[in-house]
């Protein structure tokens, strides 16, 4: 069970949520788990990572520096749709009778299967088997396979394969977490029907982005009697007619190949050729590759939990979707909802650096590197943004974006979240500490670090020798535009320190590249001295009376929101933001997040005091919160709380905890589950060029294990109530720490669990 997501009955009420659950993707292309035969209640979707349309952001009052254009990931042509008729009656699960039904997502192979026994209203009993996967071998390729067998007599089958370019995006004007309008965004350049193939080529009206898709058919089995073609402006179809006798089957494979277009690119020729190649190689060839790809992935990062199968299923499900939705080419990233839905309009946030990158750094650093490259490739736009925001120099990364330009229209919980800059910087530090990849620092990292450091020096200022940062918003979106957000200040301090380290490191070890970079960006030695000064003298708000770290300068002087009496969650859908800003109430981990990310800087006593205070005023209305509270609870020995928060995190989408899984997965939360297991229960910390573990087992589990890639070594950690075992699965012997005990890990090492 724990490698599969099984749906045993068709339930209309879960349909739209399950379109997200059963979505498939490969980082470039994503399809929702909509039924092939369609369903009036769903929201079908097909997405290409990084493919967006522009729209004007309409403000009543527009001020300087407000972004004027938004970007929305668009729903591209649908190739899933088929209409299947049995003696002219349309197959639809909302009519006739479902005798058997099973849908199965196999996470070991990345394949979705659906098997149905259905009785038409005319009494024909038919078995239908659907299979699909989005290829990891060819990023533009999707395979669909169909098997249809009449079980109680002859039947005429009409199988209509549709290529539909007339798709629109989903919208809800009352929910700020999804787009508010949906219009047709495409103009169709070509729409062709050729023998057994369909083709469409479209361009977005404003962003002028082009893509095409070519759909090919192979009839493996079946007595074809007739073919018919239909074509409209933006869609086309082929109908294949068959006569089947009882127990005879029709078997059809459709392969759809998507690609971006562009100037002077012969899209049609390219797609035709690639589709023919896919056709020749065949379904099984790509399926074998698929199995191998996932098997390698799981081999690097599989987790086990004995004693809770549903939980294990949830964790694997999360890892599966994170892998699928993440761009792996350096020019795309991972949207907050992945490639599974249109929530947050397909935008990339700090979710990437703070939650998702650590997962890849410790399991698949090549992907982590590509995500950092994305930030490098958008650095020029971040520099432009800094100028728009009246900074003299430096780079300010966008709070939400697809193409690198800021597109958040509500600046208090958008642009004001300057911490995106230090989140990116710290993720480079984390990547480097675990991989020693100097090349990344030289090629991309250093420039990002230097430009983001500059931004801080132009944002903050020294007062009485202390460096202060005013007028920003921290991670908690129920508190906005405040002075000296603790999280931001301490993360900036660490990132400035790292920038100085990288500056000296490059100067010493890569002098040629160093000089080139310094000249390119005109960096002065005095600037670096200021980074040291600011980093060392960063002001961090502390409340002496309460003996806790303060979320910001004014936070603790506000009245506390009484969450025990509150019934209207999430608060953001019930209260004007200003009301929220007047109280001590948090949407998500903020100060506690700083203590988790920079754990090596805090002692447990302080974390405990802070935790006791901030937990009471945190709503966890953001799905980015519970995993962090689980990790912090683990640090301070609140094992029951750690367990409960972890349980709330791990099945967020499978159990629809936030009620909006229909709009797409909660990608940061999914990665946060893995962080909860490794950093929380596993007590993993990486600092001072060492890796530390402090494993604990929750009462409910017999045993658990996880794997970490650290400096090209794969370390497996297994924990049960009696023993803890570390095994070196790959690479040379490595130093690790178990609590404070040093171990030179050569093959495996077993200790008593105390
Ligand atoms: C959270 C942000 C997050 C965004 C996208 C919001 O609800 O408050 O921290 O970046 O969702 O996941």
TrEMBL record:
Residues reported in the UniProt entry to bind substrate: 350-351, 587-588
What domain of life does the UniProt record list for this protein's source?
Bacteria
InterPro entries xref list: 6-hairpin_glycosidase_sf, 6hp_glycosidase-like_sf, Gal_mutarotase_sf_dom, GH65_N, Glyco_hydro_65_C, Glyco_hydro_65_M, Glyco_hydro_65_N, Malt_Pase/Glycosyl_Hdrlase
Outline the extent of the Glycoside hydrolase family 65 C-terminal domain.
684-744
Is the keyword Acyltransferase in the record?
no
Q: Which residues form a coiled coil?
A: none
Q: Which UniProt keywords apply?
A: Glycosyltransferase, Transferase
Q: Which residues form the active site?
A: 477
Check the record and name the SUPFAM superfamilies matching this protein.
Galactose mutarotase-like, Six-hairpin glycosidases
Give all residue intervals belonging to the Glycoside hydrolase family 65 central catalytic domain. 316-674
One BP annotation, GO: carbohydrate metabolic process
Q: Name one Pfam family in it.
A: Glyco_hydro_65C
Q: Name one GO molecular function term.
A: glycosyltransferase activity
Q: Which residues form the Glycoside hydrolase family 65 N-terminal domain?
A: 7-254
Q: PANTHER family, from UniProt?
A: GLYCOSYL HYDROLASE-RELATED, PROTEIN-GLUCOSYLGALACTOSYLHYDROXYLYSINE GLUCOSIDASE
* Protein name per the record: Alpha,alpha-trehalose phosphorylase
């Amino acid at each position: 069970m724990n490698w599969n997501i099984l749906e045993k009955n068709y339930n209309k009420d879960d349909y739209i949520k399950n379109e997200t659950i059963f979505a498939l993707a490969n980082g470039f292309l994503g399809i929702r788990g909509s039924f092939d035969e369609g369903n009036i209640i769903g929201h079908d979707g097909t997405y290409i990572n990084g493919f967006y349309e522009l729209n004007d952001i309409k403000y009543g009052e527009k001020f300087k520096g407000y972004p004027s254009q938004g970007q929305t990931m668009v729903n591209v042509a649908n190739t899933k749709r088929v209409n299947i008729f049995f003696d002219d009656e349309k197959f639809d699960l909302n009519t006739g009778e479902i005798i058997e039904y099973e849908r199965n997502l196999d996470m070991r192979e990345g394949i979705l299967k659906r098997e149905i026994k259905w009785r038409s209203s005319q009494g024909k009993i038919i078995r239908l088997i659907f299979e699909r996967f989005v290829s990891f071998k060819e990023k533009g390729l999707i395979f669909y396979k169909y098997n249809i067998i009449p079980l109680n007599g002859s039947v005429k089958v009409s199988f209509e394969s549709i290529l539909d370019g007339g798709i629109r995006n989903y919208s809800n004007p009352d929910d700020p977490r999804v787009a508010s309008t949906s219009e047709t965004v495409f103009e169709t350049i070509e729409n062709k029907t050729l023998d057994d193939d369909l083709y469409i080529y479209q361009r977005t009206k404003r962003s002028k982005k082009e893509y095409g898709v070519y759909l090919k058919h192979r009839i493996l089995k079946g007595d074809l009697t007739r073919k018919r073609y239909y074509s409209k402006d933006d869609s086309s179809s082929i109908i294949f007619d068959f006569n089947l006798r009882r127990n005879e089957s029709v078997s059809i494979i459709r392969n759809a190949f998507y690609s971006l277009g562009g100037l002077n690119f012969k899209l049609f020729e390219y797609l035709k050729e690639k589709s023919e190649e896919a056709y020749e190689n065949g379904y099984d060839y790509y399926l074998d590759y698929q199995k191998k790809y996932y098997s390698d992935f799981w081999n690097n990062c599989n987790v086990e939990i004995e004693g809770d199968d549903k939980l294990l299923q949830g964790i694997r499900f999360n890892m599966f979707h994170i892998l699928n939705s993440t761009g792996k080419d350096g020019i795309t990233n991972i949207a907050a909802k992945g490639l599974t839905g249109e929530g947050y309009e397909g935008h990339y946030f700090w979710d990437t650096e703070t939650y998702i990158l650590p997962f890849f750094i410790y399991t698949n650093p090549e992907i982590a590197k590509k995500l950092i490259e994305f930030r490098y490739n958008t650095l020029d736009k971040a520099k432009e943004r800094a100028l728009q925001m009246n900074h003299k120099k430096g780079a300010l990364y966008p709070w939400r974006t697809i193409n690198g330009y800021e597109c958040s229209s509500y600046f208090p919980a958008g642009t004001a979240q300057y911490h995106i800059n230090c989140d990116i910087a710290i993720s480079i530090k984390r990547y480097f500490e675990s991989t020693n990849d100097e090349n990344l620092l030289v090629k991309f990292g250093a420039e990002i670090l230097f430009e983001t450091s500059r931004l801080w020096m132009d944002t903050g200022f020294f007062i009485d020798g202390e460096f202060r940062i005013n007028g920003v918003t921290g991670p908690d979106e129920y508190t906005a535009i405040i002075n000296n957000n603790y999280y931001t200040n301490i993360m900036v301090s660490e990132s400035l320190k790292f920038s100085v380290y990288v500056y000296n490191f490059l100067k010493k070890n890569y002098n040629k590249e160093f000089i080139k970079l310094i000249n390119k960006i005109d960096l002065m030695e005095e600037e670096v001295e200021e980074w040291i000064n600011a980093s060392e003298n960063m002001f961090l708000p502390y409340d002496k009376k309460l003996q806790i770290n303060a979320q910001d300068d004014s936070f603790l002087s506000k009245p506390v929101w009484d969450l025990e009496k509150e019934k209207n969650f999430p608060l953001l859908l019930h209260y004007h933001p200003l009301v929220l800003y007047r109280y001590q109430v948090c949407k998500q981990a903020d100060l506690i997040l700083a203590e988790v990310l920079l754990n090596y800087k805090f002692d447990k006593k302080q974390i405990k005091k802070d935790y006791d205070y901030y937990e009471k005023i945190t709503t966890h209305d953001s799905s980015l919160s519970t995993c962090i509270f689980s990790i912090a609870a683990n640090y301070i020995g609140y094992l029951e709380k750690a367990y409960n928060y972890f349980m709330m995190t791990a099945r967020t989408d499978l159990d629809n905890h936030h009620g909006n899984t229909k709009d797409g997965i909660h990608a940061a939360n999914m990665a946060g589950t893995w962080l909860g297991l490794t950093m929380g229960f596993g007590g993993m910390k990486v600092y001072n060029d060492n890796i530390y573990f402090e494993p604990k087992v929750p009462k409910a589990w017999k045993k658990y294990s996880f794997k970490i890639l650290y400096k090209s070594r794969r370390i497996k950690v297994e924990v049960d109530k009696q023993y803890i075992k570390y095994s070196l699965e790959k690479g040379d012997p490595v130093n690790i720490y178990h609590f404070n005990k040093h171990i030179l890990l050569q093959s495996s090492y077993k200790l008593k669990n105390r």
